[in-house]
Here is the input.
Amino acid sequence: MLRAFLSAPSGVAGVIVLALILAAAIIAPETLSSQATTLDLRSATQMSSPEHLLGTDTLGRDILARLLVATRLSMGLAFASAVLGAIIGMTMGVGAVVLQGRARSVALRAIDALLAFPGILVAIYVGAIIGPGILGVVLGVGITISFSYARVTSALSLSIINRDYISAARISGISALRVMTRYVLPNIAETLAITTTVAVSNSITAVSTLSFLGLGVQPPAFDWGRMLTEGVQAFYVTPAAALGPAIAIAVSSLAFGFSGEAIARALNPVLWARRAGARADADARAITTVVHADSPIATASGQSVLEVRELSVSFPHGHSTFKVVDNVSFALRKGERLGIVGESGCGKTTTALAIAQLVPYPGSVSGSIKLQGQELLLDGAQNGHDADLNRLLGTQLAIVYQDPLSSLNPALKVGTQLTEASEIHGGVAHSDAVRTAIERLREVNIPSAEVQLVRYPHELSGGMRQRVMIAMGLMIDPPLFICDEPTTSLDVTVQAQIMDLLAKLNAVHGSAIILISHNLALVSQNTDRVLVMYAGRIVEDLTSAQLLGGGKHPYTRQLLASIPDTSRPREDRLEFIPGQAPDPANLPTGCPYNPRCPLAFDRCAVERPPLRVQPDGRRVACWAADAVAGERTTVAS
Ligand code: SF4
Here is the structure.
């Protein structure tokens, strides 16, 4: 980290100047006070000479000595103001983001409104209320700086609050305060470091300005602002008396700016751990072991792990609302593997978010979701998290996201992320949690598990990161895994390894799995049952064996026909579904699929078909389902 800091020219320049300022602040008041404060009218207003390098002021005091002695008070006030501003500002910014729903919007707007006040006027106002002196300066400048600090902190926090790794932390039941301190603040520290140095830089100017205006440091004490006031009055006689403090203010402000840039580089672990990352990539390429497990057998009966009834997710649209998930009902048995497929925007991921209680504001969830028999939607709606709900989600549900890099907290080591949930929820001792983490990493075929614990996510390959995500889920041995496009960002070989791994976990741990994917071939080969979703609704619910035999809903059939199949004659054109998935805010009347459906007839345009059970057990939402013969379809991998 130090190497990264010093590798930046700005860092070297900033450090040298700050070191000189620090030395002056420590040494000068002890050695030069006499020259800086003793009046000698016979030597007044002298120009530069070997005895007085910057000359003397109107009272015969050495200007250079006064500049150096004033460094301690100037920097002390600037630091105190910046620290006060940072504490107030970070508390305001983080506090606003921690709030949920409308309260968060109001708090953020309030911070924006505070920024509209001219900072120096606020400082003068506060300084005038408190009275001239050091306390008024620190409070005035600190409060002024806190507004911009709060805005930066809230904006940065908002930019990452919906990242997958924070969602994962939230469903792990980690408290809002801990999420902010462990997951949000470390990941915005880089920018906050720059903000802090800029805050110190601004404080130097603001403190000097207040002193210049007579509201700050009062005689006989003096800082650079006070010296500037006195120097300006004699500018044409001894210009150094005004130029000296002005240059000191400018140089020290620049030094903090340069240092901030260098600190930002040093705090970025990607920069200083690049070599370690290269070693990890080499290790990752060496992985050749693949887990092959017997295909899991779905239980034919058993208690439901998950029961979803009439689930709807709505978002406001003008004066009304639109549904992105509409009246979805299904159940999942212990150990069952359920696939959810459909085009982008069909509602499959939103369904998963609703189950995990992660639908973002201002979305609203209604219906019933029972996880292990316990209702998640209190009073029929998503009411935020309480301790019991956090514990339930944190121990009964794990999610594996599409992008493993964004799913892991880049600021925490792999080991910390693996052990955190079990330590918090299970009260497991740290040493036991580490032992379990090593076992889980081995279980998901991570080589040198002990070594990986002390690495950061960016030091691992994509496949290893996805395995770590699965291992993280296994730490709590949940009865339900939700895998949202878990292999989309991985190459075909690693994709197969991950699917083998999920199959093994299903067989060994008996975890039920919801596999969300747009890849119908992948889903049909790795699940027991499939939900086909379109326009936020289930349009067909069938077993994977039935899917291989062909769908009864025209949408399912067209999805199957559009899967690339190398066994087809080369002259056969690859089918595609004409048109686009409808806008949820503007669905067609009747059956939502009717503008794209080759079998549509008059009734389809006016009446929406219900999801009905067919004689073979599948559920289909289509007026023509009875007329559609199950056409055998080959599903290629
Ligand atoms: S209800 Fe009509 S439009 Fe809708 S899928 Fe069936 S046949 Fe097509």
